[in-house]
## 1
Amino acid sequence: MVAWKNKGRTLEINGHQVFYIKEGSGPNLLILHGYPFNTFEWKSVWENLVNDYTVFTFDYLGMGFSDKPKDHDYSFHEHCEMVNFLIEFWGIKHTHILSHDLGVSIVQELLARDLASQNCFKIQSVAFMNGGLFMDSYKPRMIQRLLSQSPKPIGKLLSKLLTKKKLKKSIQSVFGPYTQPTDKLINQFWDILNYNDGKSIAYLIGRLVFDKLNHQERWISAMQNTKIPMCFMNGPFDPNSGIHMANRYKELIPNPNVKLLWQDIGHWPQIEDPGSVLLYYEEFRREINNTSNRNYLD
């Protein structure tokens, strides 16, 4: 985890320090992490990705190694504003995006902004992975409900009472039966959550899970109307956003491109089966290139 932190730098955005990493060479690839940890979740696929792409990533405000203001209204709008700020800082005009968990919702907002010409960059493609794209199919864990749907004082207390043992149980419940997290990974996740007293505001970030309800119609419409190539890579065993989410994607999205991993892979495919994630992502990129070439020839 220390080595991961040493890869990155921080940049001040609106008075807050935001942790980011930029590494590799080749086509641009922005990767977005999930809740409640940080970019460290991409560690197992990182080296392979930076061999093929210029990879950009950052820890959202309130998470990981970025600042964690306690009296702050966290929002998807702010996350997208930070994406745009960083992309301008990095000097990027266009990028592909790979996203997981909370990151898929940030991309949904970016897609809606794209249709309204509100981003400072062009999205070349989107790969979603195990996230709550559609709230009518999303099945949050009890700990998520308690942290994010309780009145703020109760959420604050529950965040304070969260122990490593409870966190371990919660994480284990969304991993596949044969790809359970190691004690080392649990310890690393625990340290990341507690960095800069982040555990104390876990309930504030968690509230974004249900804030998605306010954006569903606009986001789904954007996914249905965009011309940007998309795919959904899915660990089917995930009780939150597994096979049921993949099936809903097929129902709602025109010409759906769904790539299912092995049936016993859960919520964190990039940790549980990094080889297959890399394989499916490369397949998706080949499909985009083949389509582009066909359109060019036509």
## 2
Amino acid sequence: MTAVTGGRPEEDQRALFGQSVAVFASLTGPRHLVETANQAFVDAFGGRSRQAGVAFAEFSPELADQGFIEVLDRVHRTGEPFTGRDVRVVLATAPFAGEAFFDVTCEPRRDAGGAVTGIHLIGVETTQIKRAQQLMAEHRALLEQIARQAPLSEVLDGMARSIENLAPREVLVSVLLADPDGRHLRHGAAPSLPDFYNEAIDGIATGDGVGSCGTAAYRREPVIVTDITTHEFWTDFRDLAGQAGLAACWSTPILARDGSLLGTFAMYHRTPSVPQESDLALARVFAGTAALAIERHHSEQARLAAEERARAAHDALAEAVRAEQRLRAEAEQRAAAAAALTAQVHAAAAAQATVPHPERCQLGGAAGCTAPAEIKLADSWGDAAWGCPAHVEEAIITVRSVFIASEELGGLAAYVNR
């Protein structure tokens, strides 16, 4: 495992983009023998042989297969200079290994008689500029996604693909998201990793020695495993990584502004690999972008949850008000019914002053009741009335001050045994 220290933004920029390098070589004859060359040219194009006097095709075999010899042949044959902008080449030697871009000028060399005797090759590396332009464009697109509150999965997936496109060598990117308690990591994005691998590590615990990501999350610092097949952190996951064709994993924790864990950002490789400073700088830059996206997502989720709670509380209050209104309306209805029955009792009492025992129920209201009057009711004011068992029961339930006072028929016993 390699220890990694955090870099300042300007240091990360230098690591990512470096400085432009000028290359120069003087070539002789139709075979383009390398007569003289500066160190940058030798470092970039030295290939298998770095000796002067060697034909360019032998000096840099990989360029010979990329159309470069044809360009030199044409300049030597026609005497016309060649200028190319952002010429793409694939190099095999460090520190330029991988894809590189150069602005190149090939000027014919002539003898005293004007005959072409060789070529001056001058170039300026533009790889850094191209990568900076790509990085700025990709980063701007991600920030725009975050600003318009695109789904977090969409932002993280786009970020992973951007890094895979920007990296000078093949890399497979994974983002895991921390549970609220920080004890487990959940799948966030990994567009190039196989589904079975993503499913297997979904929910992995954070802990010292739990793979690269679990350890990075636990330690809150980057963890670089250059060879999965031999590292102790991968003992429990070695077979899984082998099935997925993974041989190295560099993991960086994604931290919030307050230092709390948001997740991890991992870069996988298919061969054992030691990161360059540019790789680490790229990880730091995008870990910061991922933190911004995740924090924005958490804030949005918290806002939506608060709005949902407020909406639920409002709905509950509205329902309580409606229930209170219903109860009040029912109480008013009961009060009105009680008042009506009380009025009936009073009216019946007044009527019975001349008729001691009516034949028909006096409690039927406006509709009347033809049932026999069987039970006498009275209230605390001394009023009384006769009614049928059904209307008497309704009066007893509705009007609290009413009681059975039927002496002739046994009073309460007549009601109970009706």
## 3
Amino acid sequence: MKTLVVCSGGLDSVSLAHMVAAEHELTRLVSFDYGQRHRKELAFAAEAAGRLGVPHHLIDMRGIGAALTGSALTDDLDVPDGHYAEETMRVTVVPNRNAIMLAIAFGIAAANGDQAVATAVHGGDHFIYPDCRPAFTNAFNAMQAAALDGYADVHLFTPFVDRDKAAIVTAGARHATPFARTWSCYKGGDLHCGRCGTCVERREAFDLAGVSDPTTYADADFWRHAIAAKGAA
């Protein structure tokens, strides 16, 4: 199956790219610059494309991102610390982000004869991001079938949509993903902060998967306190 992977440069999407390269026919990586404060992730996506020997398409969505206001990922708002599932992480929602990106990715796939668009949405995203849930991905797949009817046959591939991030780490390790060459932290500093929701979730996923985490965190122990606080809530 000729498959395009939507790749942010994060652990999830880079692991997916390595999995697709091993199990299908990886054709290209597509990334989006929507003005995210952690846009350093895009360099890791470009690196992954080079490593896997496929083209990297970087789509400039900064004009659109500037209009999708109110998110800590694009505006001058503090990225909250703590476990990813906490209510406070809703400030990281960029409305319709995945829907917009996937629509563009499907157009690129159709124009290039690809058969699938793969995205690494997973079960841990369901709390907060409506465009990561199975109801959305199923409806989007049906919408694109209608949008491309008679022109192209492209399917949405979401192997992790009903699984957790630990399953992604397991799959990534199985396909020799260089986890140190991925970026998750929403704060975009020199190191992963170790405190924001994505850092806590990342560190917990390695622990649950029983895989050594090569990431250097500015605060390497906070994740344990965040998990304990979640359990006590």
## 4
Amino acid sequence: MISQWQLRAAFAARLSDMYGREVPAYTTLVDVSREVNEEALRARGADAERLGSIGRVTAERHGAIRVGTPAELRQVARIFGALGMRPVGFYDLRETKGSAVPVVSTAFRPVDHDELARNPFRVFTSLLTPADPRFFDAGLRARLDRFLADRELFPPELLALADRAEAERELPDAEAERFLQLAVEAFALSPEPIDKAWYETLERVSGVAADIGGVRSTHLNHLTPRVLDIDELYRRMTGRGIEMIDTIQGPPRWKGPDLLLRQTSFRALAEPRALRTPDGRVTSGALRVRFGEVEARGIAVTRKGRALYDRLLALLDEQTALRPGADRGELARALWTEHVPGSEHELAARALAYFTFRVAPERPRDGGRPPTGIADLLRDGWIRAEPIVYEDFLPRSAAGIFQSNLSGEGSRDNAKEGAAYDSAWLSGALGREVLDPYALYARRQHVSLAQVARELGLGDAPG
């Protein structure tokens, strides 16, 4: 019998092999990531593994796919449910600054710490929003709805095997092999000719809309290895002649603790695709929609920490607008140095980031009563804090990478009011709860604090 985590690991590995064949530059990205990680481990020793073992980091991937309807999204949830992956977080990429990306998204991933340690594969999954009149007028929406209703992304056999794997949390060897074969095929790039006129109609709205609603299948949009030094990787990829997007998205590189997520990618490549013209002829063309992304993960922040991050981004935007010739990275570093604590200890003491806590072996032994607050316990040496890695995503960063890899700017009518989508709506569309990532991190932290309270004889978990 093949367990869910083994299915997940095998699926991630096979997707990686497939995507490397489809997009050879991705293989280069993986190779360079491995080189950088090995050098970081030699240079930094155990500190390099503070946010995950080198084995986990090297194997780690996140993929990205795009679907068109709630029905398709529910089918995706069944496939990833077979792999022990649940929807976590709601991301509205429409609302980021300057976005012409008409999607809302969630990420399917393991949620249990042990499952994440075994294999932390994630899939960032975006759903088109045809109901948003800023992007789609009534006529285009009707055409799009008809097109999407007339396609089948996933074969019934795959979905039946997925349901069995989710219910039983494992599959027999033969069924597991069949499931993996069908699942990987479902996310391969289809050779079927694309209706050129229809694709271009949607592309005028957004390249992402065309990639979702202009084809009769879905495909892996990008696959992302994890790297320990994303700035060094950016330099090495550029040195190999691979064109990268202009910036690394997310927090700046600075002297303090790594927080949240930093991402970048090489630019979408022109891939040969068969195109059907209005007169029925099939011609050879090229589309730029798929790219290779890479990520560096930091510490998960609390809601208070996230509010600070968002405030600093707003300040950075203001300063960049006032000083158009200034280096944005330098401005960001100055802001972070001024406003963000420079140590993990202070992040934990100020409840800006999530940690697991344990009683320190060398804690005071003078018979004194331990304090009851986290900051005091840390200061006086009673407990130690271990950072919890950020397992999720940033909508502004995701939209920035999507936008940086589009061939055109797209269009958006800001005079119209956007359609309302939120986490509750997405949960209803999925037929399963979209989990709150903050609650997942907080629960893990609380469990560790409860253990600290028991060991130190405190009445309640420290706060």
